[in-house]
Amino acid sequence: MSLVTSGTSLGAVIHPIMLNHLFNGHVGFSRGVLVSAGFVSTLLLVAHLSIRTIVLPAPSANYRAAARKCSRDVMFILMTLAYVVFGMRRLED
Questions:
Q1: Residues 6+ apart with CB under 8 A from 66
Q2: For 46-63, what is each residue's pLDDT tens digit?
Q3: Which long-range contacts (CB under 8 A, 24 or more apart) does 47-53 make?
């Protein structure tokens, strides 16, 4: 995730500079757009090839065990309460 985060800011700096040089240079607008599309497509292909799928275990139909697990999770309870409190305020406005 840190690579994705650092790549986002790096791309936000490099891509506009690259487009500026392509559009205002000898390449021109139409070829600059094609070069930019090829660059982005190549990066998307690399990202697609580097992703691996995670096989999750089959879900169990034991709803009581799931309810017990959720009722003991403090963050779940706090988020549910906050949603109810702030959601009700939103409906009243």
A1: 60
A2: 988 988 888 887 776 778
A3: none
pTM of the predicted model as reported, rounded to 2 decimal places:
0.51
Q: Please state the three-class secondary structure of 18-74 as a single string.
A: HHHHHHHCCCCHHHHHHHHHHHHHHHHHHHHHHCCCCCCCCCCCCHHHHHHHHHCCH
Domain boundaries, the chain: 2-50, 64-92
Tokens of 1: 């995730």
Supply 25's token pair: 């240079």
- Segment 17-40, tens digit of pLDDT: 999 999 998 889 999 999 999 999
Report the pLDDT value the prediction gives residue 3, as an integer from 0 to 100. 73
Of residues 58, 77, 56, the one with CA closest to residue 67: 77
